[in-house]
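Internal ticket - ligand job 560, glutamine:
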Amino acid sequence: MKYVLVTGGVVSGLGKGVTASSVGVVLKACGLRVTSIKIDPYLNRDAGTMSPFEHGEVFVLDDGGEVDLDLGNYERFLDVTLTKDNNITTGKIYQSVLEKERRGDYLGKTVQVVPHVTDAIKNWIESVSVIPVDGKEGPADVCVIELGGTVGDIESMPFIEALRQLLFSVGQDNFCLIHVSLIPVLGVVGEQKTKPTQHSVRELRALGLTPHLLACRSAQPLLETTKEKLSQFCHVPVGNILNIHDVPNIWHVPLLLRNQNAHNSILKQLNLSKATPPDLQEWTKRAEIFDSLTNSVRIAMVGKYVGLTDSYLSVVKALLHACIACSLKPSVDWIAASDLEDDSAVLTPEAHATAWKTLRNAACVLVPGGFGDRGVKGMILAAKYARENNVPYLGICLGMQISVIEFARSVLGMERANSEEFDTQTPDRVVMFMPEGSTTHMGSTMRLGSRRTLFQTPDCITAKLYHNSEYVDERHRHRYEVNPHMVGVLEEGGLKFVGKDESGQRMEILELPSHPFYVGVQFHPEFKSRPGRPSALFLGFILAAIGQLEAYLSQHQNGS
Ligand code: GLN
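stdout (structure tokens):
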């Protein structure tokens, strides 16, 4: 196994994840098989309990892993399917070490960070890197490891030490270290400053790791003199100093790396001769198409975490993939669901008016997943608006549950219809707690990962969008579901459950046949959307927004 380690210096939020996945794309374009590992030095066992407000979206994998959103970038960029073990956290490492300690595996020894924790990290990396993630057999050629955080953080020390040991055991020929850093420009003088990078490289070297390449983030392209200075002070050849300056969209980053011959430097360091020259035709085409799009479609995103757009990163990416397939630029209008509520008309009338104006100007409405009751009333109003005005609506997970509550209240007259999540006393429990495992424990009761949905009829929009297949496997992350005992009345009222799980008890997809596009899904189609291969549902949603869904469906009627 050949390892490419990507570390970060100076500040966080440099786009280390995008850089690391772009390195993967370039190596893949050279004919190599690539896998990846993300290390998050925080103490949480996984991202499942972390707030999207603070940390961005929780990405969900096929195997039910709740992981850092960077793994979403790897899956999308490299077109791979990762496992939960591809995300290493301090929590997971310590848990495994402590379990071993309790079992008595350490034979009466004092358990210490070095060697026990560092050994656990090394073993984890070595065993996960060989798991095939691209659908082929046998291990990949290269494993890109991204170390989260910034070099020098107390939390990342055991990982740095473990990686240093890994380098020592696999040898220089099998290890390439890329350090991502920032080159700021100070206003008055306008000079590109190398000192922060010098310091962070010095810090890395003091810990026993010397970077083979530098990836320097900057607003403008780096000057030759800046590169020379960096080379001299950081002990990295000029040819190995890469520059990632600001680009119009992130699909340019692999191209930027290729244009600077990053692949040659990496392949040389790794002593990999079997690689071919990089073929990035598709990427180039996609990046250029993206830049050239002029027409846009307005999408209202009515959610709870609208302050930080990373909270819905995969939804935004899935919208992008679908829009590009329709030669459109997505224009996402974020609406804080609570601003739509009646209370807000009194407390914050301006915000209320703006939110409603934005909603009315949008071509379609999306209510994404979420937890807790904040903004629920506003989401219900958005679903009602879309249903009554024939505006295309896509409800994902919570968004589907919202549409069921709204329908029960407005159409079936069940005024207090609700989800058990928001009102435990509701007389009309249309959405209820339906754990797959324990009914008494809250921990691990979430239904997570890939599950099968069977279409109940070929005669519905979603089955047609999924190319008339009989089933679809999508990823889930929820605790509550449509109450199976209420399905009869809801269907009599006109809401149709066109997708169910294999037991027939769990409602997976709903449609409103009297509406041009009113679709709710209990799963999260956004997690499997890929550049160039948009999620069928997102594509249908965007086509409906621009009035082209029918034409598309009749053209693709034979599953072509
Ligand atoms: N809170 C809802 C549930 O637990 C929806 C979850 C979601 O949207 N991911 O079922």
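Auto-summary: Residues 113-129 form the longest helix (17 residues). Residues 369-371, 397-398, 421, 477-480 surround glutamine (CB under 6 Å).
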